[in-house]
Amino acid sequence: MKATNRRNFVKGSLALATGIMVTNKSVAGGVLGLTVNKSFKFELAKLAYSYSDLEPVIDALTMQIHYERHYGAYVKNANEAISDENMSATDAIDLFSRISKYSAKLRNNAGGAFNHELFWSILCKPSHNNMPTAQLLQAIRSSFGSFESFKEEFTKVALGQFGSGWAWMVKDGNQLKIGSTPNQDNPLMDVSPFRGTPILGLDVWEHAYYLKYQNKRADYINKWWEIINWNKVSVNFNGTR
Question: Residue 24 gets which letter from DSSP?
Fold first, then answer.
């Protein structure tokens, strides 16, 4: 996917998923709480659910700690680094396209802010009959053979991410791909070997699940399928059309 299309896609589609606005003369809605100007700042995303709404898949205490302490720290530290380093990018997509030019502090915390905001946006109350919408389901079947094959491959990638990191489904042109990134990297970063526009992301850092699942990452992943908001993922998928 060309850089311009990727940027327009994320600005348009993920803004709809999060419901957070951007300040820009030509854009009514924006991406992930960012103001599109010469010194944008990250903002804490507003959740569309309460901390307890994701139970029993994710417990309320884990959600509170994850959102307020971990995610809150990423937003705070990213904004500090943006100020300290005289960052010249106009938005997060621009920043990630040349993140290698900036410090580890900015890379890690900007990634953490962006990745979590996407993660929050694609979660919802548990549903045992949770399936993608027809158009997205067809794209998944075209790329992976079947929905079950997609789930198996995604689960394998998420389990195979050594240590902390993320598992992703991305759109790259007309194809959907699955891959992972370490720490708080994401597929939009110029340092990432796995590239594409993320439409679905799973946090596999232990702080996302340890209180309930301890070291059983597989149990966390298997239950996570029940709380995916496929309508939001479809918004992300359709953002390039």
Answer: -
